[in-house]
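Task: fold both queries, return tokens.
Query 1:
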Amino acid sequence: MPQPQTLQVARALILPFTVVLAWLVLNTHYTAHVLGACAVVFVGFVVGVWGEVEPSALGIVFGVASSVTTALHAIVIKRSLAVVEDQTLVLAYYNNVLSMVYLLPVVVLAEFPALTNALTGNVSATFVCGTLVAVRTECMMAYGSATSLTLPDTFVVVSAISHSVD
């Protein structure tokens, strides 16, 4: 299992990946100060990974993948805002509705036994608490996306929850 420290260090690459991908996809040009900041972040990544006693290759891979997908998400949001006339709440609404439609079959198929137990009255405290935490976390993430905030502590929260449920 990757160590959270390695994953968090690799997730710090969101800024450089966002700048590079925005340049490639959106043809955005940045100042030398922004490029210098990206260089500092990259050097911090290298120092952070080398500074660990046992750096996790899996943590680095997942952290870099997370940074790339988060950067791509920011670019998609930037392009999508033009479609909804820069109204972030409208975009968040569309995002939530489409996510619900897309994920509903997945949730029903993957969670069918737990849903069956819940509907027949065999509700465990773990199921109820896990559902409430998941809904609350999703609401916070949706609000963060709508207001263009980043949530670097999401991994820490999800990691803590997964360890408490196990």
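Query 1 returned. Query 2:
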Amino acid sequence: MSEEIDLFENYEDLPSNVLAVIGVFEESDMTYVDCEVLINQLELIGYTCDYGLDSCPYGLKKHNMELVLTDIELNEDIVPNSNITYNVYFDGKNKFKAVLNDPANVRGCVSFEDAPRQVLYTLDKPIDEFTDEEKQNILDYRGLNLEEDGFEFGDIFMEKSYVTIVE
């Protein structure tokens, strides 16, 4: 198994939009909230990273997931407040990732500190194995029609019948 390259150590390989996001945080002393905001902004352009107990970001990489839903309230017991929103990404096969949406804007929310920064989900089967009948059943919850309205990955996530939280 090859080891992933930390793109923080390879600035010459980064596109200008990633450099612009990182540049905002370069000259400041990072806090945990700053790290979460950085990750959120990176996620929006297809990248992600981690950070340590010292609030120092590391492990910058492309996340290879497509943004499919924005500003979604997760109706899960693990999310303590309905004002907390998430952006949802899909890997094109069978995994969703909900990422806390801009922690700087929801700091005043009750129990924000207890909200998970990300929630991972898996589909019961790969997306390409869904039949048209199953897709229509998923769309029925919103009163939509497969032929007229089409089908998007976010529809599966919102309907939840085929989606399970990864523990």
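Both queries returned. Flag for query 2: DSSP finds five helices and seven strands in the chain.
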